């Protein structure tokens, strides 16, 4: 039988204290005479009306499992429940079921989630040095560059469907060449951008710098970009330095240090919802998507990447 809530218990006892007859209380609250008697006895003996905990058998898993499992989870974070059961049996000689393993993991406060994957080629020393260097950079002077591709086959990744049924959608397979946007992000929002057909290469990037970006740069700005071969031409460096600006490259395989990556995530979400199915419609959708980026968006992305305005001298 399900126990009554504390509020009902208190109202029943309060009615007794106020002089209501037992028959009236039974009719009013729908409780039995024995229940009223039990509540009064509980208050007299314990001074409270909280329901007593229901006793049950203790968990099967031992304290050693709860303690040792943390180290195992840290060593093998992407292992399945079955694999964790096997690992535990190999190290302790104790066999546990997947249901027990799942229960213990939940009690430890661990959950299974999509993981963030970093490239094994990353130079962690270079990344650590960059974390220190970016503390000295004034976010209001940064101009972050990158490129992003899009095609007419973009469609939402999720859809509604009845429980237990697969969700379906349609998208063109003959997508043609990608459209690539080369863009800049500043503390104040989106900077200059250029749209090209196909993938961006060193020639296209130089054209963007020379004809689009460089004329808009002001002395003292810091141009930041990925450490890609297409970005590292002598001409690009000359054009930027000629404007009195500094050129910096991110550590290799470190897109998490580039605030404009989050810009492109918003761009892709917009394009998936737009469902542009012609190149003209896609071009228009890209322009509209870039216009949705606000200064507040940009500043949040910079701060998330570890870049902040410098105060004081």
Write the layout of secondary structure elements.
Blueprint: H1 6-17, H2 22-29, H3 33-46, H4 63-75, H5 81-92, H6 98-107, H7 124-134, E1 142-150, E2 179-186, E3 189-197, H8 202-213, E4 222-225, H9 234-242, E5 246-249, H10 260-274, H11 279-291, H12 295-304
Helix pairs in contact: 8-9, 10-11
Distance between the termini: 71 Å
- Looking at the overall shape, the CATH architecture of the largest domain is 2-Layer Sandwich
Name the helicity range. 40-55%
Uncertain runs are none
Number of domain modules: 3
Beta-strand percent range: 5-15%
State the helix count.
12
Structural class: alpha/beta
The CATH class name of the largest domain reads Alpha Beta
SS elements, strand count: 5
Q: How would you write the strand order of the largest sheet?
A: 3-2-1-4-5
Helices and strands, in N-to-C order? Answer: HHHHHHHEEEHEHEHHH
The CATH superfamily of the largest domain is: Ribonuclease H-like superfamily/Ribonuclease H
Kindly report the CATH topology of the largest domain: Nucleotidyltransferase, domain 5
- The overall average pLDDT, rounded, is 91
Protein name: Resolvase helix-turn-helix domain protein
Domain Tc1-like transposase DDE: 142-282
Pfam family, one: HTH_28
Domain Winged helix-turn helix: 80-132
């Amino acid at each position: 039988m399900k126990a009554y809530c504390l509020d009902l218990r208190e109202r029943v006892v309060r009615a007794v204290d106020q002089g209501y007859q037992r028959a009236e209380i039974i009719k009013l609250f729908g409780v039995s005479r024995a229940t009223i008697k039990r509540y009064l006895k509980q208050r007299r003996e314990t001074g409270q009306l909280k329901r007593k905990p229901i006793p049950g058998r203790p968990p099967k898993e031992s304290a050693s499992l709860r303690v040792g499992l943390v180290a195992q989870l840290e060593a093998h974070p992407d292992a399945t429940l079955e694999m964790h059961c096997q690992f535990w049996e190999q190290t302790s000689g104790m066999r546990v079921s997947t249901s027990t393993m799942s229960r213990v993991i939940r009690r430890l406060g661990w959950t299974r989630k999509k993981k963030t994957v970093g490239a094994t080629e990353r130079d962690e020393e270079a990344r650590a040095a960059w974390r220190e260097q970016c503390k000295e950079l004034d976010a209001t002077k940064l101009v972050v560059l990158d490129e992003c591709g899009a095609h007419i086959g973009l469609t939402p990744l999720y859809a509604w469907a009845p429980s237990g049924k697969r969700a379906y959608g349609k998208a063109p397979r003959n997508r043609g060449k990608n459209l690539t946007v080369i863009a800049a992000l500043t503390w104040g929002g989106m900077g200059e951008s250029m749209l090209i057909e196909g993938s961006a290469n060193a020639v296209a990037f130089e054209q963007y710098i020379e004809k689009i970006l460089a004329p808009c740069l002001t002395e003292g700005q810091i141009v930041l970009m990925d450490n890609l071969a297409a970005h590292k031409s002598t001409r690009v460096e000359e054009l930027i330095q000629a404007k009195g600006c500094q050129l910096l490259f991110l550590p290799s395989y470190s897109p998490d240090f580039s605030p404009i990556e989050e810009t492109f995530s918003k761009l892709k979400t917009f394009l998936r919802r737009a469902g542009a199915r012609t190149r003209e419609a896609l071009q228009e959708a890209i322009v509209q998507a870039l216009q949705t980026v606000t200064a507040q968006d940009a500043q949040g992305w910079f701060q998330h990447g570890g870049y902040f305005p410098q105060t004081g001298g």
